[in-house]
């Protein structure tokens, strides 16, 4: 790792890993949070990393790692020192094989020793689209409640619905992160 990238990253002590299958909207979410703008879609072949400021100027570093099938085996190399996982799911993708892949990857992450006891924030993205699953479908298919108070595993796991292509979700995600990281209500 180059010296400048190392310096940039060590500026923030709170590392968030953003993972999920390819095309679910991770990169769009990252840059929506960072710039409040839409970026040209482009599959991530490596990773993107950005620092954001939460309340009280609390810096957090979000690592967005490519989710294509052949890239997923590389996720394990990014786990060290992770303090929170944002797991993104495309709520419009009803392909049973993709749903199973997404559940399997999430399950794998929940079982990694390096990620034990850290919060997982699950984002059901693309809720602006008419074919997006509703809360009941999400509950039935993923066994995850869109209930921010609910704890579904030994991890402190929270789930919410997002739209990466508008600014509607920016406040909502930042508030959620503040709640988990800083403890704000
Ligand atoms: N309508 C809608 N489209 C979205 C949303 N989020 C992402 N997209 C679109 O979905 C496509 C994939 O988004 P990306 O952010 O590149 O997906 P990714 O998860 O980073 O994919 P990989 O880099 O391959 O892992 C792009 O065309 C985005 O513009 C959303 O909330 N709503
Ligand atoms: Mg990407």
TrEMBL record:
Coiled coil: none
PROSITE patterns associated with the record: ARF, RAB
Compartments, as annotated in UniProt: Golgi apparatus
GO terms for MF: GTP binding; GTPase activity; metal ion binding
Residues the record lists as binding GTP: 20-27, 67, 125-128
Keyword terms: ER-Golgi transport, Golgi apparatus, GTP-binding, Lipoprotein, Magnesium, Metal-binding, Myristate, Nucleotide-binding, Protein transport, Transport
Main location (coarse class): Golgi
Binding site for Mg(2+): 27, 44
UniProt GO BP: protein transport; vesicle-mediated transport
The keyword Iron-sulfur appears for this protein: no
DNA-binding among keywords: no
Any GO CC annotation of this UniProt entry: Golgi apparatus
InterPro entries given in the database record: P-loop_NTPase (IPR027417), Small_GTP-bd (IPR005225), Small_GTPase_ARF (IPR024156), Small_GTPase_ARF/SAR (IPR006689)
Family: Belongs to the small GTPase superfamily. Arf family.
Record's protein name: ADP-ribosylation factor
């Amino acid at each position: 790792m180059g010296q400048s990238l190392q310096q940039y990253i060590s500026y923030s002590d709170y590392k968030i890993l953003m993972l999920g299958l390819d095309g679910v909207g991770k990169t769009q979410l990252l840059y929506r949070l960072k710039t409040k703008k839409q970026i040209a879609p482009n599959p991530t072949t490596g990773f993107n990393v950005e620092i954001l400021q939460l309340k009280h100027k609390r810096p957090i570093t979000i690592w967005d790692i490519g989710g294509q099938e052949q890239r997923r085996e590389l996720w394990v190399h990014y786990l060290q020192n992770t303090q929170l996982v944002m797991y993104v799911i495309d709520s419009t993708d009803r392909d049973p094989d993709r749903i199973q892949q997404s559940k399997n990857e999430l399950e794998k992450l929940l079982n990694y020793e390096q990620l034990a006891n850290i919060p997982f924030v699950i984002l059901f993205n693309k809720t602006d689209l008419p074919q997006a699953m509703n809360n009941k479908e999400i509950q039935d298919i993923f066994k995850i409640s869109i209930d921010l108070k609910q704890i579904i595993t030994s991890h402190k796991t929270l789930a919410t619905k997002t739209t990466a292509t508008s600014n509607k979700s920016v406040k909502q995600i930042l508030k959620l992160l503040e709640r988990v990281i800083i403890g704000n209500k």
